[in-house]
Amino acid sequence: MIAIGNDHAAPQLKMAVAKFLESEGIEYLDFGVAEGEKCDYPDKAKEVCDAVVSGRCEKAILLCGTGVGMSMAANKIKGIRAACCSDTFSAKFTRLHNDANVLCIGQRVVGDGLATEIVKVFLETPFEGGRHAVRVDKIMKLEG
Ligand code: RB5
Which fold has domain 2-141? Predict the structure, then answer.
């Protein structure tokens, strides 16, 4: 199960991502606001990341204007490794090397076509483990 969430700056991108997930037969829970509704991105990041930390959802996709605010908020939550990606290379390697469990994208930065490619790569790519697991453990120790 994938969690998706967005603030008022990314309802259209959320619809595009939801459509893509449906076309791939990937189940998702939509925590986002609809067109015309507003929310503060830290509140939405918390709600969506809680679904990941609790184990209800395996990964999450957070969408805002830039993707940056969502990633900043998400990375404050214990157990979350969020990556803000505007390209498929970063999406691939943040899975392979960082075992990212949250992907953040900005509707004002990335078009729908590229965004869905980024989502596809992120969800398809496994964590490589090995030497990267040691480094990811070190990231998690920084949480205190
Ligand atoms: C909302 O206007 C905007 O600030 C938000 O979506 C996001 O881009 C913050 O990083």
Answer: Ribose 5-phosphate Isomerase B; Chain: A, (3.40.1400)
